[in-house]
Amino acid sequence: MKSAYASLKDLIPLMQNKQSKIKIKLQAIQNYEESCSCNQMSCLICSRKRSSSMISLKPLKHSVIMEQGKIEKQGIGQIQGLISRKLSRQASNQLLQQTYYGGKQNYEPKDSSTNSSTWLLSKSNSRKISLDYYSQKEAIQPKPTQQQVTTISRLVFRFIYVIGKGGFGKVWRVEMKQTKKEFALKEMIKAKIISKRSVNSVMNEKFLLEHLRHPFIVNMHFAFQDRENLYLVLDLLRGGDLRFHIGKLKRFTEDQAKFFACCILLALQYLHSNGIIHRDLKPENLVFDKDGFLHLTDLGVARLNKESVANDTSGTPGYMAPEVMCKMEHSYPVDYYALGVILYEILIGKRPYNGKNRQEIREQILAKQASIKEGTLNVSSKAIDFINRLLIRKPQQRLGFEGIEEIIHHQWLKGVQWAKLLNKDMKSLYIPGSIDGNSDFQNQISADSEIEEECQSLLRRKSVQSLFDGYKFQ
Question: What are the TM regions of this chain, as residue ranges (predicted)?
Fold first, then answer.
């Protein structure tokens, strides 16, 4: 086999000889400006030199290998397009790497290894965060039609009624006028975001959501903004959140609790495999669809599992792990602790630690180790062991410290048909039904708070609006 470095103009003589069958390797050279000087219109390298938008790239690792027969069949135009897409993709990769990952090719959890839980990913419709996935997707997509390039704005949607309330604004049930498809639209007031110093939080949430898609998380479809607000267009789930249903029933059966735990674990396994800690797992952030499957939402305080997160104390008191409460280094086990608190609450009827504020809850955690006593009515010994091990204060001793497969293989979850659950081929043990009226949502909506006039006036400044640059997804 022969291989050579060549510009596209050098391929033309080779195409004349149909007898020989050789492989030609085309590889980008480090310095594009010095690699060719023929200045012919058919030369890809020279045409890139003439482009005013040419980017200075690092040496590229990828190359294009083609057989001569394929060159004859595909033609020079298609080969140009192929090489152009590769160069474009690699430029996009390097920009993402430098911006979000400090130059790392992929962000993987520490001590990650192939284990028995990875089959959950392989059998799902989900995907891991790959820095070249979206640039590849953009490169191979056909040119959009006029309908597809319609700019997303408030005018595209018909606002039906309010279904919830977040920290920065309302959540609406909306219908896309063109497709008649319904979504949940999260409206966030920029003035409130600024006053609460949460710009990084909302930008981080949008960035994570645009790289994630899974059957058990609330997925994003669009993101856009106007002068006053940011908007996230999400899956519409009509079953209400877990907090709403805890308020109605107080307690659930052990089998129902196990089903909820499995839904949550599928969502956490997906996030953790992508190096993401949720850090705010609580009933308010777990939403039912009409068939009774729980979906995880709100990545506002989620973080990539980085070197040091000791000073990050974001979360909700009562569900916050002791290591977070005490401003210590923390990782994925904080989500497992919160899962233990939720299961304790829906089986026992109250949280293991209660207090009026963070300080009171912290003092209770330091004073004693919470646990469910053996012999508790309607709770099996396997369930008690499962929950008590999740609630252990020291993360090194907590169930799941060695990886989520340690939780999945616990005796309490033995026999769970994970693949069927992931595909939603089984029936939920709790059917919340569909909440279709605005009045049914009012119990979940708190009163509006005043927006400070000073923050409102800040929005007139270009420097303030620039804080939200890039807040779009379509």
Answer: none
